[in-house]
Specification:
- This protein is about 75% helix and about 0% strand.
- The chain is flat, with a radius of gyration of 21 Å.
- The N and C termini lie far apart (about 50 Å).
- The mean pLDDT is about 90.
- Helix 3 (about 45-55) packs antiparallel against helix 4 and helix 4 packs antiparallel against helix 5 (about 90-105).
- The protein has helices spanning about 5-25, 35-40, 45-55, 70-85, 90-105.
- It has five helices and no strands.
- It folds into two domains: about 1-30; about 40-105, no CATH class.
- By secondary structure, the protein is mainly α.
Length: about 110
């Protein structure tokens, strides 16, 4: 490999570990404002939504709201079970069951 590649890889390592290390080194002195702490509670739900919704609505790259899209009813079932039961494993299993039955039936 050329020196260009090694410089690029080294730069990526520095940036990646520099960001992570900064929180370990300066974390005890870093205090976020209360409004930011409250806002950060919603980050996991926002990231999960950003990952799941495009897959459920557009599994082939274009929005597909037809009966042949088994991802959509599976995702909706998992979301409803999670909302009403607050049990993660039940939501995952129900989503897989509905998805599998939808694929088998349709």
């Amino acid at each position: 490999m050329t020196a260009h590649w090694w410089l690029m890889i080294g730069g990526m390592v520095l940036v990646t570990y520099g960001i992570r290390l900064s929180f370990l080194v300066f974390g005890h002195r870093l205090a976020f404002p209360l409004w930011l702490q409250r806002s950060l509670r919603y980050v996991p739900a926002a990231v999960l939504t950003a990952l799941v919704v495009p897959m459920a609505l557009a599994p082939q790259g274009a929005i597909e709201l037809s009966w042949s899209n088994a991802y959509l009813p599976g995702t909706l079932a998992a979301g409803l079970v999670a909302f009403y039961s607050r049990h993660t494993l039940a939501a995952i299993v129900s989503g897989f069951v509905v998805y599998g039955l939808w694929r088998w039936w349709g």
